[in-house]
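Friendly challenge for the regulars: who can give me the structure tokens for this chain first? No prize, just bragging rights.
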Amino acid sequence: MNLAEYERILVIKLGALGDAVQALGPMKAIRQAHPAAKITLLTAPAYAGFFENCPFVDQVWRDTRPHKLNVIGMLSLRSMLRAGRFQRVYDLQTSSRSSLYHTLIGPGRRPEWSGIAPGASHPHANPLRDTMHTIDRQRDQLAMAGIADVPPVDLSWLDADIAKFKLPDPFVLLVPGGAPTRPKKRWPVAKYAALAQELAAHNANPVVIGGKGEAALGKAIRTASSRVRDLTGQTSFAEIVAIARKAGAAIGNDTGPMHLIAGAGCPSIVLFGSDSDPALCAPRGREVAILRRDSLEGLGVDEVMRLLFKRAA
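First reply, four minutes later:
Bragging rights claimed.
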């Protein structure tokens, strides 16, 4: 069957936020390959709202990830998957969890499957897949499923009214948060506070964003200068993108919001420690620069400022 003739497609992308953003190029490619199909996205509840208005899918299903021993929950998920009568599944999560769904959707005739599940009709069989950047890996996966043209991340469809924030001009975004269980991914908050002071001294207003659980970081940076605006816990995904489009630059850790900011086209400096590898997961784009140290504690404010000035020149 020609790809354009498929009628029902399922895309699986459960998370996390950075991975969800990096899947937008592949999702756009799937939409272009199946222009007339009804495309369903299965994702985590935390990202359902993010994808709600995405033009690359027609509907969004929430995967509540029932435990394997939760018989009722797994049967409900199985019933939902089977009711979709999908002709092809693109598993962009390619985890043991999402691969389980290939088994769960049986018995009987299963849809064509692009992923790493045993028995997949279009397996991503590249033995080097785990050494590839997320974007390259998904591009390679889709090529093996017959989709050769994969565009870059496209967030042009996502926007929000941000007038309520009354943002200063000019401003630089600071993203000091990150996974609380992986502290080595975070540049010390004291360094962000010192950076905020330097930015203010150069007439750039620091604007801090982050989740509700990162309010303490915002408060610590806010005390560094009266010019700091603290928006931690106040911004939706769409608002982050809209704010990024107006920012002069952004500096932040390897965390989901930086993928949104970079995807919006904002000149971005992303800080990496030893706990993650930019060769595998960093945001990409002409306006993205990476600073990596084995220990982020050793990264100086002056070095970040030099790179910021260099990119602004």
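The first strand starts at residue 8 and ends at 12. The CA atoms of residues 124 and 141 lie 5 Å apart. Your move, everyone else.
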